[in-house]
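Here we describe the complex-level prediction in full. Unlike the single-chain runs in Section 2.1, the four entities below were treated as one system.
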Amino acid sequence: MKRKLTLKSIAKELGVSISTVSKALRDSPEISEETREKIKAYAKLYNYKPNNIALSLKNRKTNTIGVIIPQIVHHFFTTVIYGIEQEARENNYNVIICLSNNAFDKEVLNMELLANGSTDGFILSVSKETMMKEDYHHLNEVIDQGMPVVMFDRVVEGIQCDRVLIDDKAGAKKGVSHMIRSGCRKIGIITSEDYVSVGRLRTEGYLDALDDFGIKADDNLILKLDNIDDLSDKSKKRIEDFITNNDLDGVFTVNELFAVHASRVINALGKKIPDDISLVCFTDGQLSEHAVPSLTAVSQHGEEMGRKAASILINKLESAEDEEEEYSTTYIDTSLVERESTKEVTRR
Amino acid sequence: MKRKLTLKSIAKELGVSISTVSKALRDSPEISEETREKIKAYAKLYNYKPNNIALSLKNRKTNTIGVIIPQIVHHFFTTVIYGIEQEARENNYNVIICLSNNAFDKEVLNMELLANGSTDGFILSVSKETMMKEDYHHLNEVIDQGMPVVMFDRVVEGIQCDRVLIDDKAGAKKGVSHMIRSGCRKIGIITSEDYVSVGRLRTEGYLDALDDFGIKADDNLILKLDNIDDLSDKSKKRIEDFITNNDLDGVFTVNELFAVHASRVINALGKKIPDDISLVCFTDGQLSEHAVPSLTAVSQHGEEMGRKAASILINKLESAEDEEEEYSTTYIDTSLVERESTKEVTRR
DNA sequence: TAAGAGAACTTAATCGATTTAGTCGCGTAA
DNA sequence: TTACGCGACTAAATCGATTAAGTTCTCTTA
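The structure predicted for the assembly as a whole is:
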């Protein structure tokens, strides 16, 4: 086992001072050509790399971004992380990932931990519990210490930070409009209770689309389930009843899971997708792509979201500290991925 | 914006020396009760937390685990990370995640970067390119510097490190045996070329199962595709032909994607799952769970794998440096999750 | 020839913490 | 009265790097 090289060990070996070594390696003109070459050759030979921790301490800069997300076993978050990582790497930043598991306490703990020198800034999507509690002291503390924060997806108001959001409303509208254009007239939506912001926004988009085409909304065609991340037996039953009891020709769901179950129910009723009923869901993940029939989906572009969040954060980190504080809100566009679960729109 | 407290600022404020503050906060008996209380009260009031970077530098220990994986938009890796994070958090470790994107250069770069002080050890699954190149100098260098390494899933031989593996062979055997017990006699396997180790091992498990039940293997019933992570049009076609041209009553696939496509093909042929053909796949992810019909799958327990890898690494990190070096290989057991794609086994 | 310039280094401070090795004053014992 | 011990601190070294502020020594120039 060989010890890592340090400036000190190189200096000792070559019989010069530490600062000479440091300056030589950084091409300072203060050091003679000869000495510089000698030191550089030695450093190269033994593969010297400065210690990141020491640099961080000295520079008061870690070049590390802290990412805090509610869960990682989740396709969307995973794509966002992928985007963050790409952007970070290109700008020489590391990414530390912490999971809050949707728990307030863990979110606070993780933030405090990382805030004590481990990271220069944060990218986070707040946990469900935090949203319910509406306690954001940990965010404010971190921001107060001068660390920039970028929130994505699940954002809250009243925090001095940048935001990157999916345009949920426009996305849902896009999906529902597509169904209408393809001939659907009686479209139901399977969404969440309004207190889940994405559910509310997507429902609004749905209503908007109907309105645009002069279709009257009907409360009976709106099914609000209470958990958007999971599919309980009770929810399954409600989806079954919803589809069985309404004579729909289209169903829009706010996530893949609801759609997959809807597809199953429609299938069981002996109806054909998309001939009898069209199906479109929000979120373009594995399920939409590989389901049978594959599902037309509103794609969220998580990767782009991650890249954008990282780029905003890095920008803040690299810009002058005393610059005027302005906080932006960026909407990431969605796009519609057409697959087997919808009919083609015949264009004029 | 308020600056973070440091020992120095506290010392100045209270008119004592830095070391007095440090000692007081660490309950040293050298400091008088009175002074200690005063300092602790002040620190608590202003929420003093020591700077991690300074501690890392001083202790030559970062309490951070570096995780390097080929890709993150992948359910299995995601579950492993989840396990790693759980175990790490419980032991007060942070997790830095880097993606190699299956590229050798990125893997090397990331490792070198993290090795310069950012982490105490590594958990990694080597990239495809690294396996092909068989160039492991970056691993050896890191190990040579005394950093423990734990490899998981995609491991290579000849490296001084611990290994955590899925018992691919036993898992496949479990799945195939189940099909046989449920009545299947002509079972095909859709696997990868042998140079992909998981493909090879799972094929071996398949053969083992047949052998156990005295069923003769038939090379025509083994389809080897060249990419396990993706499903090219060419591969789709080959799966179609494979299923159409062989009169199978069971299909085992080494991943979900192959199974989903197989299911589609079987469906298109007008055959019923599981009545006409049973279907079992390796990897229990979203697709198996939500496909229609849902798929019986060999579950890999990624979370357990992550936990185990982290626990081994942390153990190495916490144990005396000069302890005898012994490297373990741990197999994580698989389990069979029975779903709609197989018939029930009538037990005696 | 002595001062000044400049080349080529070294010293030392700094980042924020820990810890070993002093220091200082006071009380007690020989 | 001196010396020793002890309580309660402080000073300084250390981790590994950077960098402002010295220090030498040589060479130039008035």
